[in-house]
Amino acid sequence: MSASPAVHSLPNAVVKATSSIASRSAVASPPAKSRTDGPSGRGPSSARKAAQIRSLDGEIRALARSIAQAAVEVLAGTRPAQQLSRTLDPGCLGALQHRAALTRAHAANHGGQSRVHRSPMVRSVRVCAVNDGVYEASLVVSEELRSRAVAMRLEESNGAWKVTALEIG
């Protein structure tokens, strides 16, 4: 046996076939170009698109803030749940109404109005885009005696934003 490496040359037909495939794939998929075309009319510029995303994030942040504030007020009994019927899907609205009823029943059994849900204030809001038309938000709501975490999922439907999931800690 010899100590030479076991390298074999490929037949010419295989070399031609592989080089032909490589050249066709290079033609079929040209290198990606950066899209910085705003003035050309082919699409929004990256700066304009970033501004639109920031604007939408701000809109979602404000909407999430108002919904969380209202939901905690519903739990406190200072706001009717029906006021949220346009922004909550039926499942979320039903769950919020049920929890508010349980909270009122608990307060009635323990001597009147509960002090737990007094003057809630949203302290922080974080939003994250999941997909086009889908955002998730997490909020911190402070009350006199405690702070609560609120999480929600907002989905765009027919030009309006609806909360499809709501969790209040």
From TrEMBL:
Superkingdom of origin: Bacteria
Region (Disordered): 19-49
InterPro entries, sorted: DUF6459
Name of the protein this chain belongs to: Uncharacterized protein
Annotated source species: Arthrobacter gyeryongensis
